[in-house]
């Protein structure tokens, strides 16, 4: 008999994510994680400066960057922000950056556990609801690995742009509640080589 697996609700996914933080919340681990996160944020800000063709250090870690921003409302969206919005007008993303060692895209194909990056995505979506003019972009990396970009498939449809036209982009679908969540995943190098900043404003801008 085929095994039926109930899709987790969004509330269950977010609850599991919080439990994981508490379980592994030792101070020494948390300090190392925070240091890794800050390093990744600064590196990604430099990449954003180049992609948007703006002066160095235009993008910077937000004052609310890091996991604690989920515990209280933040006036700044995501982990990185433009310090000079007039030069990056129309920037369409709220960005969450995860620099973690223990994650694997193979989790997506296993229904035995909820993929870590799906939990991260749902947390980011919840935060993005506070900023309706922005669309979520999850950025994942780990030691000696490139930056991986995760965006929502439906966000590509604003100008009927097909994400599959981007080489080496993958689509992943996962059941959440009664619907299917489809995410587009590719490396940052592939994303930026396929979409200029101006083009991205048209595709993702609201």
Structure write-up:
The chain starts with 9 loop residues before the first helix and ends with a helix. Helix 1 packs across helix 3 (116-128). It is 33% helix and 20% strand. It contains five helices and seven strands, in the order ααβββαββββαα. The chain has a five-stranded mixed beta sheet. A two-stranded antiparallel sheet has the order 1-2. The radius of gyration is 17 Å and the shape is globular. The longest helix has 25 residues, at 27-51.
Any key phrases for this structure?
two-stranded antiparallel ribbon; alpha+beta; globular; 7 strands; disordered N terminus; five-stranded mixed β-sheet; 206 residues
How are the SSEs ordered, and which strands pair?
Blueprint: H1 10-23, H2 27-51, E1 59-61, E2 80-82, E3 93-99, H3 116-128, E4 135-141, E5 148-152, E6 170-176, E7 179-187, H4 188-194, H5 197-204
Parallel strand pairs: 3-4
Antiparallel strand pairs: 1-2, 4-5, 5-7, 6-7
Give the gist of this structure.
The chain is an alpha+beta fold and 206 residues long. The protein contains five helices and seven strands, in the order ααβββαββββαα. It starts with 9 loop residues before the first helix and ends with a helix.
Low-confidence stretches: 1-7, 19-25, 67-71
Task: Tell me the span between the first and last alpha carbons.
Answer: 47 Å
**Main sheet: strand order:** 3-4-5-7-6
Structural class: alpha+beta
Biggest pleated-sheet summary: 5 strands, mixed
How much of the residues is beta strand, in percent?
Answer: 15-25%
Compressed to H and E, one letter per element, the order equals HHEEEHEEEEHH
């Amino acid at each position: 008999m085929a095994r039926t697996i109930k899709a987790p609700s969004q509330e269950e996914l977010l609850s599991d994510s919080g439990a994981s933080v508490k379980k592994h919340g030792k101070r020494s681990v948390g300090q190392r994680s925070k240091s890794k996160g800050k390093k990744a944020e600064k590196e990604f800000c430099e990449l954003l400066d180049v992609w948007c063709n703006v002066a160095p250090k235009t993008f910077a870690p937000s004052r609310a960057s890091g996991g604690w921003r989920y515990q209280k409302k933040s006036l700044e969206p995501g982990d990185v922000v433009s310090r000079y919005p007039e030069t990056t007008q129309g920037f369409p993303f709220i960005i969450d950056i995860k620099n973690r060692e223990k994650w694997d895209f193979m989790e997506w194909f296993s229904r035995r556990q909820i993929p870590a990056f799906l939990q991260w995505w749902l947390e980011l979506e919840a935060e993005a609801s506070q900023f309706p003019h922005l669309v979520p972009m999850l950025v994942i990396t780990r030691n000696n690995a490139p930056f991986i970009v995760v965006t929502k498939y439906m966000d590509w449809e604003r100008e009927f742009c097909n994400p599959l036209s981007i080489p080496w982009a993958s689509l992943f679908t996962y059941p959440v509640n009664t619907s299917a969540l489809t995410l587009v995943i590719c490396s940052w190098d592939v994303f930026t080589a396929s979409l200029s900043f101006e083009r991205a404003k048209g595709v993702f801008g609201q």
